[in-house]
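Batch job 17 of 40 flagged for manual review because the log was empty.
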Amino acid sequence: MNDKAAIPMRRYAIILVEEASLISQACLMEPFEFLRRKLGGNAPVLQVCRLGQSAQNSEIMVPPATDQIQELIESFGSRNQPDAVFVCSGADVAPALRPKLRTLVRACTRNNVRLASIGASTWVLAEEQATRNKTYAVHWRSAFAFAERHLSFNVTTQLFEADGTIATCAGELATLDFMIDFLAHEFGEDWASRFCDAVLVSGARSGNSPQPGAQENRLLHYPLLIQKVVKEMSQNLEAPVSTKDLAVSQSISQRQLERLFSRYLACSPRRYYLNLQLERAHQLCQQTSLSLIEIAIASGFGSSSIFNKHFKRKFGVTPSQLRK
């Protein structure tokens, strides 16, 4: 195989946002380093920029990094315009960094430059409504908060979602699956396979695979009936369904349902339901500016006193103390 003739010339840009996960960075950078090793001067041209402080002082970046994001933006519309831009961030993007990132998102949208968001930078895409009527893949720990903040968008806890000019990825090791999929679509299945061989993985997980920590994957090896009941619970957190009605929906008695939960989950259906509600409330307290009353209602609690009592019992602090 003639490597130098087997891959099209491309230009890419990577934005490493302050506090970007080292795992995400490595999974994002390594495919390009692999192509550089194999192709030398015929490898895709890669521009790496930092946004904010050095991303956890990472030593994994092979190309020299620059902070000239404005220069990158100004290249749009010229022969040096990148074919795609990758934005890699951690669990959050600092408020001071968001304006520059929003400017980049708008520039990509105006110039039809493909944009891939890895990690919390997806929140900035949503602020710019860059993926209106599309689906966002976000980390399961922020899925409730993201959905509550952006009611008009579809939210998924799949590993990644690649659709047209916009792609979103939950980050961490899902970034590796996303990049293998990117190599296959951009340069062909053979290059994706060769990269997998080089990094000792059998292949990429499908983009629609659920994240391991996501609710729909936690009970993957439990009886199907329990999975169905928990899914119904998750879809009805704001207006909880009674244990009796949950049992009726599965054509079993309430007592049978309680025995199944006791046997497999070591708690009652109501306790499990309550924990799901509190998990949502905890996310909303940490990741949104909703009032505590709004959070209580969104999590299915009928009053602030009940909400505070259960929240403190589970997390050791009240919702207002957590926010402080």
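Reviewer: the log was empty due to a logging misconfiguration, but the result itself is present. Confidence is low (pLDDT under 50) at residues 55-65. Unflagging and moving on to job 18.
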